[in-house]
Amino acid sequence: MTVRAVVRRMGADGALEIELDESQACRGCAGTCMWRWFPNATRAVLAANPSVHSGMPVDAPMPVLVSLPRRFVLLSAVLLHGLPWAALLAGALAGVGVTGTDLGCLVGAITGIAFASMLTPGLRRRLERATMRQVMFEPLR
Fold first, then answer.
1. Distance between CA atoms of 80 and 21, rounded to whole angstroms?
2. What is the pTM of this model?
3. Which residues form the domain of 109?
């Protein structure tokens, strides 16, 4: 997943304030990402590794290509879609296994989804932090 952006400001702490190009969809998802739906979503502050700063001018906006590693995109999809489905199925099977009834299946499925709903926010935050450490910036000429 890559998108063109412009570095607007570089902070002393290593953070880059970038402005994403609204006219271009990301390569890889055809622009169907949720970030386009929210106001002010075209600006982001991201931490960059120290190698990004070498050779980048601080005083002028600089065009860059921002890329997310494919494995983090895949892990996000698994977390968003796979975990709830797995929890639903596991809960339903456990409910049937314990009670042997349809009501037990329903209670197990609801319990599984509730468990996934409690677990997902923490996992999402950890995955987002790991993803932000791996964002790649490539200066465009």
1. 26
2. 0.57
3. 72-128
For residues 53 and 14, is the Cβ–Cβ distance under 8 A?
A: yes
Single out the residue in 67, 88, 119 at which a domain terminates.
67
- Is residue 140 assigned to a domain? no
**DSSP labels, the chain:** -EEEEEEEEE-TTSEEEEEE-TTSPPBTTTT--GGGGSTTTTEEEEE--HHHHTT--SSS-EEEEEE--HHHHHHHHIIIIIHHHHHHHHHHHHHHHHH-SHHHHHHHHHHHHHHHHHHHHHHHHHHHHHHHHH-EEEE--
Do residue 61 and residue 85 come from a single domain? no
Q: Would you say 48 and 14 are in contact if contact means Cβ atoms under 8 Å apart?
A: yes
Length of the chain: 141
Predicted confidence band of residue 6 (pLDDT cuts 50, 70, 90) = confident
